[in-house]
């Protein structure tokens, strides 16, 4: 399988979008809704989206594996955002112009501080040696996940730097309809982006674990293919999301042969998310973790090594 694109920037929608004056379905604080038109985005056509690999868009938080302190490390997504005063000015401009383009930034004064270890994401534009925001007012970036940082405790639960391993969810090589949670060397994940999903991430749409026994894992972007994906057509995509059991996903990300990533989210099409029974959460899953780590989650999964569950969301540690 070819090396898939990594998620370093905002991914464009497969359709051209429009802005409607209504409450956002995705963000409570946003008083407008970005919706798809029926016109395919020229960026998608130029990247030959019709022959791209369609994969499941996962609902979690984005992560990245790259070197820190001389070894492969998990990094959490942290975008530099405007401070409160600038955010207010930016939203006023955005509302009156129905666009973010043309807003003037003061890079030194308009943004909240970030940790010294913060790095900008690949592809971020620079001016006079400083990273500049995208059209949404954010500067995408990353911070390393340290074990003693409570803010990223769920990130740190899925990695063990002492043994250099991560807990990864992926389709089984011999049966793509079945998932497996396994331990993977961080070195094998280097320079890839992944999604952290689980009990305490984004409202847990996949129904993993419980408050008493939380379950989290990493999923490499592009690793969960869509079976028999629909054509890139507005009406056919709407029907697929609405009627097909395989369409119970947050969205689709197309990995194009030139490395371009293109997406569509249910909210773009006016469809609700999350669904009661997600496609991912209902897939059978096996546990293949035989390497002991120093985190409680590693220990719990080692105790389940070799067990199979009829659904991913049925995984529990009391057997």
From TrEMBL:
Organism this protein belongs to: Oreochromis aureus
Superkingdom per UniProt: Eukaryota
Enzyme Commission code: 6.5.1.3
Gene: C12orf29
GO biological process entries: response to reactive oxygen species; RNA repair
Record flagged with keyword Transmembrane: no
Protein name: RNA ligase 1
Pfam family, any one: RLIG1
Gene Ontology molecular function terms on file: ATP binding; RNA ligase (ATP) activity
Cofactors that this protein relies on: Mg(2+); Mn(2+)
Chain's role: Functions as an RNA ligase, in vitro. The ligation reaction entails three nucleotidyl transfer steps. In the first step, the RNA ligase reacts with ATP in the absence of nucleic acid to form a covalent ligase-AMP intermediate and release pyrophosphate. In step 2, the ligase-AMP binds to the nucleic acid and transfers the adenylate to the 5'-PO4 terminus to form an adenylylated intermediate. In step 3, the RNA ligase directs the attack of the 3'-OH on the 5'-phosphoanhydride linkage, resulting in a repaired 3'-5' phosphodiester and release of AMP.
The protein's enzyme class: ligase
Keywords for the protein's UniProt record, in alphabetical order: ATP-binding, Ligase, Nucleotide-binding, RNA repair
Keyword Secreted: no
Reactions listed under catalytic activity: ATP + (ribonucleotide)n-3'-hydroxyl + 5'-phospho-(ribonucleotide)m = (ribonucleotide)n+m + AMP + diphosphate
